[in-house]
Amino acid sequence: MTSAPLPRISPGRFGELGPINWVVWQVLSRASGTEDAHLFSTLGRTGGLFRGWLHFSGKLMPGGRLRRAEAELVILRVAHLRDCDYETDHHRRLGRKAGLTADEIERVGAGPEAEGWTPRQRALLAVVDQLVTTRDVDDAAWTGLAAHFDERLQIEIVLLINQYEGLAATITTLRIARDTF
Questions:
Q1: In this model, does residue 63 exceed pLDDT 70?
Q2: What's the rounded Cα separation, in Å, for the pair 9 and 161?
């Protein structure tokens, strides 16, 4: 059995986070159902950059126009493709709260071609797969997305995918430890 790699940057505490980010970390940890949300105690070490990132991230999820269950499908698929257990842990829980069934959450790993997706879900997941794996989306997948989402949501979906793909890369690179619930 192999153990998880040690974090490259230790989660911060009051001295490293400062008073504002320390409070934000405490609130977000409790809201996440954990004593220490390692993502926030690590990224919180960046001062105002952390708060700017939170604002941007929060505008996409939970504050975006995309339905919460659909946003969670996007995030879970990104987490699966990037093999990011940290994102998977959190968004399985959030997905259930947003109304995803246990079957849908499990099916995310099988991808857009799995039986059981609606055409809208299938189009959404196809774009996730292409954007994460090729860094672009072909015309057929884009046409499929456009059949279900208006232009503003199409932009938001691309931003959401890239936000969570970048976050998965950050979590993986910094070796942020999984949280305990």
A1: yes
A2: 25
Q: Are 138 and 107 in contact (CB under 8 A)?
A: no
Tens digits of residue pLDDT in 118-151:
999 999 999 999 999 999 999 999 999 999 999 9
